[in-house]
Structure formats: C-alpha cells, structure tokens
Specification:
Layout (H helix, E strand, L loop, with lengths): L3 E6 L4 H12 L4 E8 L7 E4 L2 E7 L10 E4 L3 H13 L3 E4 L15 H4 L9 E3 L3 H17 L1 E10 L6 H11 L3 H8 L21 H14 L5 E8 L6 E9 L5 H9 L4 E3 L8 H4 L5 E8 L6 E8 L3 H17 L1
Parallel strand pairs: 1-2, 1-5, 2-4, 5-6, 6-7, 8-9, 11-12
Antiparallel strand pairs: 3-4, 8-10, 10-13, 12-13
Helix pairs in contact: 1-10, 4-7, 4-10, 5-6
Length: 328
C-alpha cells in the first residue's frame, strides 16, 4: 500500500510544527514529507520520525508530487500559491482566513460538517481557532435543542498570533513592555486587550466577525444570532471563552450535562470543576465546565469552554480533514 505524500507550508511556525508532530505521532504511512517556509527559514532542518528534513522555500515553478499541501502561513501566501497548486491536482488545506467565506469552498470542522467536503475542488478551508472551539461545545447541544443564537466572550492566548506573541509575553514579563506593545499595541502583562484584529465601522473586530460569519457557514444557519467580544489575555496557550447560548427547545442543565458527557467532541468537567487554559495545552478535546441555566434568555445555557487553539483550533482539525478526504 502506497503512503501519503504531504507538504507543509509554514513548517517552522507554531501550527506547522504542531501539524508535523501530529502526523509523526500518527500511524499513517508517509512516503514523502516536505517542509516549506520563508526564505529566512530556508535551509534549516526539522526532525521527523528520526530523519532530518531540510526546509525549502515554496516557488510557483515547483512541481511537487504531493497528495496534500497544508498551508499554515498568512493569507497572502495562501492567495499566492493555492490557486496554482490546487489546479495541479494537489489538495490544499488552508489554515489562513483567505478562503473561509468564499462560495464553493468547504469550511469544515470534521465532527460537525464533514459532508461539506464532498465535491471539493482541491481547496478546503480550516476555520478560525475560536470558532472551532466554540462550536465543538455547542454542536452536541445544537443537535438536541436547536441553537438559535449565542453570545461569547473569548480570552485568547498570546500564541494565537504565533511565535512573536510568545516572545512578546516573555519579554514583557522581563520588563520590556515595548516588545509587547509592538505586537499587541499595548502592554500584555497584567492586562486584557479587547481588540483582536481591526475594528470596522460597526464596532466589531475581524476576529469577532470571523466567529459570526464562520459559525453560520459551518452550521448552515445564515440567520443565527451571534455576538462576540474577543479579548487577548496574558496566557501562553489555549483559548478560553464564556458562552451564553439560546435554544429553540426547552433545556435544562442536567439533560445538557448528560449530552455533553456522552459526546466524543468535548471533555465535560462536572462536580463544580472547570477547565483552565494551563491544563489544556496539547489536548485534542475541548473542555466544558460551569454549565448552568442562563438567567437572561429563555431556553438558555451558560458555560465555560477551553481548547488548545494551536492543536484542535488549527493543526489537528486540518489533519482530521485530510483523514476524512482519504476515506471519501
């Protein structure tokens, strides 16, 4: 049986490294694995299953014989290269925001809408990390009670912006506040910044708009009511969020708890325990705690959700997409 031929663009970044680790720890047979990055990182070596693989710079003239090409870089790189390589028959799985809302391109969380992958045209979009984490908790409840809307406040780790976010936090902890100001616009230590991305004329940031628009596309509910406030906090890894969800059918916490405990999508924390970002780094599942009736809306539930945005929020989700495509 022939193995897979895979390429990772942005292999030296946090998501690219996480993806390579996931592939390496899997039982997949890999005939060829190629690492791509910027010219600055070209020539360095990354160890994969005991073998050192040299990173190279991706060029339009390359004709790599690959089955899948994962894009773990910025939207500009995806815009430049995906049209070229998808037309050459390589399935491109994009972690950037470039193609998420484009008609005809699947935006997929495998546990929720894997059916959207049928008929793909060699381009599949991976959703925003916060969107994935929120929907992993909401989907089992949506199946049971029919979600009508949700309001979410996120508390997002600095690694959400990549290695520069981690460096900025560490430098800030050592007194170099200018380092975090360059990355986040403000000091991040001892602070919380309610702005992730640009803010438009409506007052919403790009991160908040992603959660609204992507959730509607994934759930195929264009009128779903969603309001988000996305906040950057001085946490190294794993995003947390407070979600207030409303449903069409009558709900109660005990039944909702049973549903979440029986779900393979989340880890439910009961008995007054709750997940913390410090505990969730490297975990495949998202965790739910503080589940209770919401006192503001009818048929509402409030909950606390935490997930590793680098793993399930990006690399693992993309890997799972590839596994499903292999079975189609």
């Amino acid at each position: 049986m022939n193995g897979l031929k895979i390429g990772i663009v942005g292999a030296t970044g946090l998501v690219g490294q996480e993806l390579a680790s996931i592939i390496g720890q899997s039982d997949l047979v890999i005939d060829d694995l190629r690492f791509f990055a910027s010219e600055r990182s070209s020539g360095i070596s990354i160890n994969f299953r005991g073998q050192d693989i040299t990173v190279s710079e991706l060029c339009e003239s390359d004709t790599p014989n690959l089955d899948y090409l994962f894009f773990c870089a910025c939207p500009r790189i995806s815009e430049r290269f995906i049209p070229i390589f998808s037309k050459r028959g390589i399935v491109c799985i994009d972690n950037s925001s470039k193609y998420r809302m484009q008609d005809g391109i699947p935006l997929v969380v495998p546990e929720i809408n894997s059916h959207a992958l049928k008929g793909h045209q060699n381009i599949v979009a991976n959703p925003n990390c916060s969107t994935i984490i929120a929907l992993m908790a909401l989907m089992p409840l949506h199946d049971a009670f029919e979600l009508t809307g949700f309001c979410v406040s996120t508390y997002q780790a600095v690694s959400g912006v990549g290695k520069s976010g981690i460096s900025a936090l560490m430098n800030d902890l050592n007194g170099d506040h200018e380092a975090s100001t360059k990355v986040f616009g403000h000091q991040i230590v001892f602070n919380a910044l309610p702005k992730i991305g640009d803010i438009d004329e409506t007052g919403y940031s790009t991160e908040e708009e992603k959660m609204r628009n992507e959730s509607r596309k994934i759930l195929d509910k264009s009128e779903l009511r969603i309001s988000a406030m996305c906040v950057r906090v001085p946490v190294m890894r794993a995003h947390s969020m407070s979600i207030f969800a409303s449903f069409k059918k009558q709900v109660n916490p005990r039944e909702a708890e049973e549903i979440l405990r029986g779900s393979k999508s989340v880890d439910f924390c009961g008995d007054n325990s709750f997940p913390c970002p410090l505990d969730m780094g490297g975990k495949n599942l998202c965790a739910v705690g503080r589940l209770r009736m919401d006192s503001f809306v009818e048929n509402g539930l409030s909950m606390w959700v935490v997930g590793d945005q680098i793993r399930k929020g990006a690399a693992l989700n993309a890997f799972q997409i590839m596994l499903i495509l292999e079975d189609l």
